[in-house]
């Protein structure tokens, strides 16, 4: 996905820090489903949809809601009329959002490439740049975070959260079925031990 933005500059929301080197871009976008959010702070439909997208993003990436952040990145592609409008809008959105700098000509190229005619539009891309959904705004509106597992499957993401072969800390579970598997293992182990004694 970093290849799509090769040679371009993205800004980190609220900090105005630029993410421009290939290594930084790779780290920000590697092995993630990428959402390109085309919107304008002045558009009434965007003003209604943006809080839904913010909640969607936060519920998938914030530690308050999830144990491990989903492999999701978002780049805001502004149709705002002024830099102040874009900046004010981004101040209300999650810190992890990236954005094209205001007035960047690359936004026109992205609009043409993905056929964005009206806003709000959320283009969903695989890590290799392949298209998953040309506009997922309605899907996000209807299904919320429940649509992410389908995107993750379509993107064939590598799971970054694997655990090493070690005992988990007391009280933590690897999955909802972990206690059942552990009990089955203990029963099988006890049965083998009993058979060995006879």
TrEMBL record:
Pfam families recorded: Thioredoxin_8
Alphabetized InterPro entries for the sequence: RdCVF, Thioredoxin-like_fold, Thioredoxin-like_sf, Thioredoxin_domain
Domain of life: Eukaryota
GO CC, any one term: mitochondrion
Gene3D superfamilies associated with the record: Glutaredoxin
Gene Ontology biological process terms from the UniProt entry: photoreceptor cell maintenance
Biased composition (Basic and acidic residues): 170-180
SUPFAM superfamilies linked: Thioredoxin-like
Entry-linked PROSITE patterns: THIOREDOXIN_2
Region feature (Disordered): 170-198
Record-annotated Thioredoxin domain positions: 1-168
Name of the protein this chain belongs to: NXNL1 protein
Species whose genome carries this gene: Syrrhaptes paradoxus (Pallas's sandgrouse)
Lineage start: Eukaryota, Metazoa, Chordata, Craniata, Vertebrata
């Amino acid at each position: 996905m970093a290849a799509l933005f090769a040679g371009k500059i993205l800004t980190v929301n609220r900090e105005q820090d630029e993410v421009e080197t290939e290594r930084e871009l790779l780290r920000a976008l590697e092995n993630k489903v990428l959402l390109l959010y085309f919107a304008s702070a002045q558009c009434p439909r965007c003003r209604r949809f943006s809080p839904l997208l913010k909640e969607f993003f936060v519920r998938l990436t914030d530690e308050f809601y999830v144990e491990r952040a989903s492999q999701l990145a978002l780049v805001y592609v502004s149709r705002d009329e002024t830099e102040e409008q874009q900046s004010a809008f981004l101040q209300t959105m999650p810190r992890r959002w990236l954005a094209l700098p205001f007035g960047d000509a690359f936004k026109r190229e992205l609009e043409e490439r993905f056929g964005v005619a009206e806003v709000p539009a959320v283009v969903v891309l695989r890590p290799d740049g392949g298209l998953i959904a040309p506009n997922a705004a309605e899907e996000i509106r209807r299904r919320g975070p429940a649509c992410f597992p389908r995107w993750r499957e379509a993107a064939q993401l590598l799971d970054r959260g694997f655990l090493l072969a070690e005992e988990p800390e007391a009280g933590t579970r690897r999955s909802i079925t972990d206690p059942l598997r552990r009990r089955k293992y203990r029963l099988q182990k006890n049965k083998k031990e009993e058979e060995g004694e006879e």
